[in-house]
Amino acid sequence: MAWSSFGLALLGMFIGIINLEEPLSVKGYYAVTALFLTMSSFVLQKTIRDNTEDEGSLHVHMESGEEV
């Protein structure tokens, strides 16, 4: 469900950019910034997930008495 809503939102955004009545340079700028925003959202989500997983493994090591 999450992937389908993401795909529909991305598709809708690019359909809107294509139908925009602006020069090609403006459409290109919007398309590149939209792709950059999408990429940075994935990187941010992955970084937060990795940091959370690292904190979880740190707590497990500390509770078991292992040196980190």
From TrEMBL:
Classification via Pfam families: YiaAB
The protein's name in its UniProt record: YiaA/YiaB family inner membrane protein
Domain YiaAB two helix residue range list: 2-50
Coiled coil: none
Signal sequence coordinates: none
InterPro entries: YiaA-like, YiaAB
Species, as recorded: Paenibacillus aestuarii
Top-rank lineage group of the source organism: Bacteria
